């Protein structure tokens, strides 16, 4: 019963991680953040693998999931440092886009309360001849939204790591105990048939 409860908890955590990763993937696609897009894609695959391993009682898959959660925590710590500009990192750099474009986080222009100011470019006429100037009125700066996303990912990953290790240990103990019970009597058919055979011999040698 306890093992079932722990497995159900791990299944819930994996499902929550999937939903959070899919939500994050959508906004990273909108912001053309290619490095996070690749990381999220790998994360979704490994979480599905861990979910499958938990449902099908495959400890090796859960071990892979547990190892990945440690990597995922490290990645999200890097994202937090990137947006808070820790260790010489700059949130205005093109690191997350692989220097392909100058796009920033989707939240930088579409955060809560943000108003994008646009003005026509000098010397160019037309309906589409306008350039982005600035974003004002944001209730919360976009880097803090990204930090909150990463912090939530770290929290779920840490809890998932603990439960994954515990479930793997329970599965391993159950397998060892099963092998012990089966290995204690290596030839069960021989022992089962031994007694009837002895009785048959006794009946054969009974005096007439």
From TrEMBL:
Q: Where on the tree of life does the source sit, at the highest rank? A: Eukaryota
An individual GO BP term: regulation of sodium ion transport
Q: Mention any Pfam family matching this sequence.
A: NKAIN
The annotated topology with respect to the bilayer is: Multi-pass membrane protein
Q: Where in the cell is it found?
A: Cell membrane
Kindly list the residue ranges recorded as spanning the membrane. Answer: 34-55, 62-86, 152-171
Q: Which GO terms describe its cellular component?
A: plasma membrane
Keywords for this protein = Cell membrane, Membrane, Signal, Transmembrane, Transmembrane helix
Give the signal peptide as a residue range, or say none if absent.
Answer: 1-21
Family statement drawn from the similarity comment of this UniProt entry: Belongs to the NKAIN family.
Q: What is this protein called?
A: Sodium/potassium-transporting ATPase subunit beta-1-interacting protein
> Organism, per UniProt?
Alligator sinensis (Chinese alligator)
| Taxonomic classification | Eukaryota, Metazoa, Chordata, Craniata, Vertebrata
This protein's gene is called NKAIN4
